[in-house]
Design brief:
Layout (H helix, E strand, L loop, with lengths): L2 H22 L6 E6 L8 E10 L2 E9 L8 E8 L2 E2 L3 E4 L11 E8 L5 E7 L7 E7 L10 E2 L13 E3 L2 E10 L2 E9 L7 E4 L9 E8 L5 E7 L5 E5 L10 E2 L10 E4 L5 E5 L16 E6 L5 E8 L6 E8 L5 E7 L3 E7 L7 E2 L24
Antiparallel strand pairs: 1-25, 2-3, 3-4, 4-5, 4-6, 7-8, 8-9, 9-10, 11-12, 12-13, 13-14, 15-16, 16-17, 17-18, 19-20, 20-21, 21-22, 22-26, 23-24, 24-25
Length: 378
């Protein structure tokens, strides 16, 4: 068999695999790419991926090391070149001096329009004590600047991407200190030279959220969706370009105390990627499977669109989503803490079913996985 025959055969097998998955899981309509960014790596575990579109192509980043919180955890970057992801490159570590080293955490990428690619990340022994840092790239992630510490008291975006609002870059931020979980925004009008903060009130019943995503509406309003310990995705709204926000409130969507992400599409619809998991009993934390995608026009009524992973083995988590210039949706997420998964979705091919009473719609012939995974991981 010739070289081109092998390539053609491989493409047929891959297409057949996607079709087979779609038949067994009706919630995969629209998925056109489903692959790992890497197969092997010089570290045991990885987590918290982020993705951005640059003029040179797609760039992804995540943290990897022996285990989350271990001092050898570093920030890694890969680029999509000629249809393939490059080998992950170590671009940041937590070495403080010859005898002290801290882990790195939660990278976040943002491409400045007609400017540099920004890479925010954290360094420190824990989320309550970490500090924010920034590197920039002028060539789409090939090379990076020296590490720059953010001003004291500023962390940068905690997990999810910043959003430009009226020439201000809003970084969705949160803290997890002794005072509990708090959401706020770190706002810069000059891409990191100067900063100010905007607070979001906790709300009634001691609602506490972290790791918000920012959504835009055509009437000028803004919405955030956030992770919580209240068994629900939390929301807040702004009607003045993000300068003030309503108190946190519960949505009708469940949350398993795990990270989410969201993006506003060019057609004005909102896309949320999250674990649609209501923890058992009164527990705040639930297993991180399945990994779901929902769509909404108004941020209130949500429609089931996709299940990116539905294995009973847990740890499909910490997703990030963007929409690229060609209209496609791109997702990256943690796959069992072993690898980073990448998926591309054609939003025009998604089949939407309304989510009622917070329950993922039932489809004849398909059963959601019986969850067997652990819930102890952050």
């Amino acid at each position: 068999m010739g070289r081109f025959s092998y390539i053609f055969f491989g493409l047929l097998c891959y297409a057949g695999s996607i079709r087979a998955q779609t038949i067994s899981n009706p919630w995969r309509s629209g998925i056109v790419t489903d692959e790992f960014i890497y197969e092997t790596a010089p570290y045991k575990e990885c987590h918290s991926a982020t993705i951005a579109e640059t003029p040179q192509g797609l760039v992804a980043s995540w943290f990897g090391g022996t285990k989350e919180r271990n001092p050898d955890v570093c920030i890694w970057v890969s680029r999509k070149v000629n249809g393939k992801w490059t080998e992950g490159i170590n671009v940041a570590n937590g070495i403080q001096n010859d005898t002290l080293r801290y882990p790195c955490w939660n990278p976040v990428l943002f491409q400045i329009p007609k400017g540099d690619l920004m890479l925010f990340y954290k360094i420190g022994p824990s989320p309550s004590t970490w500090k924010g840092y920034l590197k920039t790239s002028k060539d789409g992630g090939k090379t990076w600047s020296a590490q720059q510490a953010l001003p004291e008291g500023y962390l940068g975006p905690i997990k999810n991407k910043p959003v430009l609002i009226d020439k201000n870059l809003f970084c969705p931020t949160s803290t997890e200190g002794k005072g509990g979980w708090r959401i706020h925004f770190e706002v810069t009008p000059d891409f990191g030279k100067t900063w100010k903060q905007v607070e979001v009130a906790k709300g009634p019943d001691s609602l506490e959220g972290i790791q918000p995503s920012i959504l835009k509406y055509k009437d000028g309003r803004l919405q955030i969706l956030a992770r919580s310990r209240n068994r629900s995705v939390l929301e807040s709204w702004s009607a003045d370009q993000g300068m003030t926000w309503t108190a946190l409130a519960k949505t009708k969507l469940p949350n398993n105390n795990s990270g989410t992400d969201a993006v506003t599409m060019k057609d004005g619809r909102q896309v949320l990627v999250y674990n649609h998991v209501l923890p058992p009993g009164k527990l705040a934390k639930g297993a991180r499977t399945p990994l779901n995608v929902a769509v909404s026009k108004d941020g209130k009524t949500w429609y089931a669109a996709l299940i990116l992973e539905d294995s009973p083995i847990s740890q499909y988590s910490y997703p990030s989503v963007i929409q690229t210039g060609d209209g496609m949706l791109h997702f990256v997420y943690t796959w069992r803490r072993q690898r980073i998964k990448y998926a591309v979705v054609n939003p025009k091919k998604m089949k939407l079913v309304e989510i009622k009473n917070g329950e993922w719609p039932k489809v004849e012939g398909y059963t959601l996985p019986e969850i067997k995974g652990e819930t102890k991981d952050l």
